[in-house]
Amino acid sequence: MWSxxxxxxxxxxxxxxxxxxxxxxxxxxxxxxxxxxxxxLENGYATLENFFSFAPWVMLFLVSAIxxxxxxxxxxxxxxEVLHTQPLTAWQIINGKFWGSLAVAAIALIPTWVxxxxxxxxxxxxxxxxxxxxxxxxxxxxxxxxxTAIGVCVSSFTTNAVIAFIISLVVSVxxxxxxxxxxxxxxxxxxxxxxxxMLGIDFHYRSISRGVVDTxxxxxxxxxxxxxxxxxKQNLHKQ
Length: 239
What we know:
The chain has helices at residues 2-12, 16-34, 40-43, 49-67, 72-77, 79-85, 90-109, 113-122, 130-155, 161-183, 192-197, 201-209, 215-238. By secondary structure, it is mostly helical. It has one domain. The two termini are 19 Å apart.
């Protein structure tokens, strides 16, 4: 499993594409936080709320780009048959792909800690709430793990990496914001809106971002990850 994980890491960083994707991710988030309208410098408050609100949307594209070649390129190049003959179970192959892709996305998040220390340094009085920031980072990492599981799953269904990118992006957007959008329809204003919104990722992500770690939110994220990896396993058995 770890050999596959290391292969995913080395493959992503073997060309400039991987580095450019991460640089763009950091650049866009930095511009939103410090340059664009309603940035942290204009608001005058020591908070990373803008970053944690916007980062999931950028992460949607980054993770889809990271995972789109997971299985699609293996199928296209014919190396999956070679991989399948190795003494590895389906779960080991899937976990190697999943953890390797997640590690790449996590590496992209590490430099964003600079935002936390910079804003704390610029704060005139009290800095950022460390508990809320830790909860938000945990939520963002769990959110990234779900997007990664979706991307790996979608990639296992096609030989075309571009199609895998588009479909994983659409599925991730629907699960992230789709239920929230549906809950805002007037027909659900009789109390059903809350329960519909609970089905979406955004609801649980915002819950953890408040700094309060609820086991229900953790279970929700882990269940989604397991579900998509299980679908991937079932699909690999058909190959």
